[in-house]
Design goal:
31% of the residues lie in helices and 15% in strands. The chain is of the alpha/beta class. The protein has 5 domains: 4-80, no CATH class; 90-166 and 431-717, Rossmann fold; 169-261 and 357-424 and 729-758, Dimethylsulfoxide Reductase, domain 2; 265-349, no CATH class; 778-910, Barwin-like endoglucanases (Beta Barrel). Helix 4 packs parallel to helix 25 (624-642), helix 10 (246-259) packs antiparallel against helix 14 (359-366) and helix 17 packs across helix 18. The longest helix has 20 residues, at 446-465.
């Protein structure tokens, strides 16, 4: 018989520890990040973690932020000691992907990598050295290290955000920036909350309680999604919709709002471009350059009801003064070419909506009943404060930009922006701004900061003289400063073999008049987009990305890109899909084994977080700062020993190699062992965290943001952060009348850029989803996994126990019965691009014609190592190549070509 006293003693051991340390998880869990945890340490091991539950309440009228945490964070310590954890530097000894490795010393690995880098720089040039940070650079310090080393070597750093599908193109086009989000407690002021383009029950576990609590206060929650998702289950009203048709639904709602006179005319006149005059003959705005010689192309006109004349729209303020812009009608104006007729954009929009998007017409496109469309339109228009929860789903559709533009139109027509509890939330972003200069400055002192700022001063003053707001200036400086070197989608397209599939857009998109290659060449010729170098790449650092799992169609990279590469280096905690195909795998420290700071946070939970080294790194793992600084040290050493003292950079200038380590460490101010000092410097340089010290942040684990600060991305939130108030975006626009960072300085729905005109997208429209992958009956959609969010914990045994332990494809009952498939059957999924095998999960929550595979599964978790991303062609949408249009220009993380996956067409057979 068991001795229960012994079992009790064993259980009690779990509640004995040596110390408790504050920590968080430096992972890309994006919308729900970050969460403060208590780490319980005994005998040099992290026994477990628990939510700290110490977040303050903003004010007594709203709920607090506790508890913050999810199942991913609650078992992170298990991931630290998982068998797949990389403990030592490994060198490939077999063929790539064969799985044969040799343990080597750090010195041996870094010496070989440094020598091969020196050879490449001398022989092929720095533009053949590629850094792929992927979507996993969640550490501010790691990002600083990557950018510093890449900048010193003049290497290419891939900008991957658009590839991830997180760029929210429609918001960037309409608002001038994709960033804008409220704090989660601001939902408590909403009386109508839309979940439209996301699944927060999966992706915002720590934030969802605010929505549920808002329901207790009387808010109505509406979920619009094709499937009966986990978020739809908890909504008051679920509106099922055909995948990829959200623009049709939104435009029909806009038609009802305008035709029924429900629109907020004051907001429309002041905040949007809808009163601006356009020329139906040329389909362009009426500009000052049309009116007079030497007129400007960025001056636009309104028709003033009071004076019965055209007046210039102000660029400096949104205040209308005594002007009352008309919204409807047709008017004749004198131009250099004679009299022309003009109409307000509102009139053009109204006519288009009436002609093409009545509820009855839209219902045939989106599958939503006309009466439902009308009820929803009335609900938004009559709500005191309607909000739409932030989500990243729509930008992963080929026509996601049109969907977002149409959604924003609905909220703008109803004036549901820039007030408590209201707003269309887009990309949530809020970062400590102290890390901004660290990648590029020479030293750490105040003089170094001044020198770095002085390099930006001429550009700043130039734009200030033109009347640009600080927000516009910072955005433009971000475009001009070399944060990243190449859009990853165009890099994979031109160098990775994706051209064969992503270039077939015209085959699947009936709206395209030209092939994608023609659009790419036009974008290059007109300097709309900067194309990656034409040289074949030779060295790839995957730090800490996971290219072979992340990229849609990634098997093409393995077939076309990897054979060109002389060296592939991965820095990771575990054997990822990409690490398995690398030449060297270098072991990184976990979140509990280093002092670190989250690179970004979000207004949803407006706190900056730090983690501490609760235990030393396991075996020979090292913090990423130490790894890259040691590599710089080895490059300098080997360059001196071999006499390779310089190389010619991409601009043709000679750069020294014998002082790389010195410059990497801010002229010797830091060493490879100073990871914590980098974190401390970043925090204490930040202007938006009050006066918090690094020691205070370490002890508490988090600090509340006190202002937006100077980070260009933060400014998109356009609001003042006050200590006792929830965060509401866009109050700078509605209360201070500060212009939007668009060409018209308004929320801009009319885009007369040449590509938009060619493709008929000057106004938001609905376009049928492309049949990406071929004309097959089922549409494969997806979403972020509830268990893992991204791939970094997808092989965690506890998390796998929460689902079926292997990849699963959700399928409707009707589609399964038609194909004689039962729950759990092994099936073959295929299209014109490829195939893979997976188990089915037959669910009544999935609509007929749709199948769902949640992302994050590693390739090696599928049969034969071929995952579902290998049937996703991700055709390039040419409109994303647009440029040379004030706010439509490539910038870090936005307004570049992206990848899409939600329109993939497939067929399923029982295997």
């Amino acid at each position: 018989m068991a001795d229960y006293r012994d079992i009790a003693d064993i259980y009690r051991e779990r509640w004995r520890w040596d110390k408790v340390v504050k920590g968080t998880h430096i992972l890309n869990c994006w919308y729900q990040r970050n969460c403060s945890f208590n780490l319980y340490v005994k005998d040099g091991l992290v026994l477990r973690e628990e939510q700290s539950g110490k977040y303050p309440r903003t004010n007594p009228s709203v709920p607090d932020f506790n508890p913050r945490g999810c199942q991913n964070g609650a078992c992170y310590s298990l991931q630290m000691y998982h068998p797949a954890r990389i403990k030592y530097p490994l060198k490939r000894v077999g063929q790539r992907g064969e799985g044969r490795w040799e343990r080597v010393s750090w010195d041996e690995a870094l010496t070989d990598i440094a020598d091969r880098l020196l050879d490449t720089l001398a022989r092929d040039g720095p533009d053949t050295v590629i850094f792929d940070p992927g979507g996993s650079v969640a550490s501010l310090i790691f990002d600083v290290a990557i950018l510093r080393l890449a900048n010193l070597l003049d290497a290419i750093v891939l900008d991957t955000n658009c590839e991830l599908g997180d760029e929210q193109q429609g918001a960037a086009v309409t608002l001038g920036t994709p960033v804008a989000c409220k704090s989660a407690d601001d939902y408590f002021y909403s009386d109508l909350i839309l979940i439209w383009g996301g699944n927060p029950a999966y992706t915002q576990a720590p934030n969802c309680h605010f929505v549920n609590e808002a329901r207790y206060k009387g808010a109505r929650v509406v979920t619009i999604s094709p499937d009966h998702s986990a978020s739809a289950i908890h909504a008051d009203w679920w509106i099922p919709i055909q995948p990829g048709t959200d623009a049709a639904l939104a435009l029909a709602m806009a038609q009802v709002i305008i035709s029924e006179g429900l629109h907020d005319a004051g907001f429309v006149r002041e905040q949007t471009d809808l009163p601006f005059l356009a020329r139906p003959d040329s389909r362009t705005f009426l500009r000052e350059s049309d009116i007079k010689a030497r007129g400007r192309d960025d001056i636009f006109y309104l028709y003033d009801l009071r004076t019965d004349k055209i007046v210039r729209a102000s660029q400096k303020t949104l205040k209308l003064g005594r002007t009352v812009p008309v919204l409807e009608g047709e008017y004749e104006v004198d131009t250099k070419a004679g009299k022309v007729k003009v109409r307000p954009v509102f009139q053009l929009l109204k006519e288009k909506l009436q002609e093409e998007y009545t509820p009855e017409k839209a219902s045939r496109l989106c599958g939503v009943h006309p009466d439902t469309i009308r009820r929803l339109a009335f609900a938004i228009a009559r709500a005191k404060a309607a909000s739409c929860m932030a989500g990243a789903s729509l930008s992963k559709y080929y026509h996601g930009d049109l969907m977002m533009r149409a959604q924003i139109l609905v909220f703008a027509l109803c004036g549901q922006m820039g007030k408590k509890g209201a707003g269309y939330d887009t990309l949530p972003y809020l970062a400590a701004d102290g890390g901004l200069r660290l990648p590029f400055s020479e030293g750490l002192g105040p003089l170094d900061t001044l020198k770095w700022m002085l390099t930006l001063l001429p550009s700043f003053l130039e734009m200030k003289m033109k009347g640009h707001t600080n927000e516009m200036i910072y955005l433009e400086l971000a475009r001009r400063h070399p944060w990243y070197s190449a859009n990853s989608v165009l890099f994979w397209y031109l160098q990775g073999g994706l051209k064969e599939i992503s270039g077939r857009s015209r085959e699947w998109d009936p709206y395209l008049p030209r092939d994608v290659d023609e659009y790419v060449e036009e974008a290059r010729r007109r300097r709309w987009q900067e194309l990656p170098p034409e040289k074949e790449p030779k060295v790839l650092f995957v730090v800490p990305g996971n290219s072979l799992r992340r990229v849609r169609g990634a098997h093409r990279l393995r077939e076309h890109l990897f054979p060109k590469l002389d060296l592939i280096v991965a820095i990771d905690l575990r054997m990822s899909s990409t690490a398995l195909y690398s030449d060297y795998v270098l072991p990184a420290a976990s979140s509990y084994e280093k002092a670190d700071v989250s690179e970004w946070n979000t207004p949803l939970s407006p706190f900056a977080h730090a983690t501490n080294a609760a235990v030393p790194p396991l075996a020979e793992a090292k913090p990423e700062w130490e790894i890259l600084v040691l590599l710089a040290k080895k490059i300098q050493q080997r360059a001196t020993e071999r006499g390779v003292l310089s190389f010619r950079d991409r601009g043709g200038k000679r750069r020294r190699l014998d002082d790389v380590y010195s410059r990497m460490t801010f002229r010797g101010k830091l060493t490879e062992n100073d990871q914590e000092k980098v974190a401390q410097t970043a925090i204490e340089l930040s202007t938006n965290l009050g006066k918090v010290s690094w020691q205070e942040l370490q002890k508490k684990g988090f600090a509340r943001f006190t202002r937006l600060g100077q980070h260009p991305a933060n400014l998109g939130n356009a609001t003042d952060i006050k200590p006792d108030e929830t965060i509401t975006p866009h109050t700078w626009r509605t209360e201070k009348k500060i212009p939007w960072p668009t060409l018209t300085r308004r929320i801009q729905f009319y885009i007369d850029q040449p590509l938009y005109l060619e493709l008929g997208e000057e106004l938001p429209v609905h376009k049928d989803p492309p049949k990406a992958g071929g004309d097959y009956p089922l549409t494969m959609t997806g979403g972020h996994s509830r268990h893992s969010i991204h791939a970094s914990l997808k092989d965690n045994p506890l998390l796998l126990e929460l689902e079926r332990g292997e990849p699963a494809m959700f399928m409707s009952v009707e589609d399964a019965e038609e194909r004689e498939i039962r729950d759990g059957d092994r099936v073959k999924v295929y299209n014109d691009i490829g195939q893979f095998f997976v188990r089915t999960k037959v669910s009544p929550a999935v609509r007929p014609g749709q199948v769902i595979i949640y992302h994050a599964w590693e390739n090696f978790q599928f049969e034969g190592g071929i995952g579902h991303r290998n049937v996703i062609p991700s055709p390039i949408n040419p409109v994303e190549l647009a440029g040379d249009y004030f706010h439509l220009k490539p910038a870090p993380a936005i307004l570049q070509p992206g990848q899409s996956d939600r329109d993939t067409r497939i067929e399923v057979l029982k295997a």
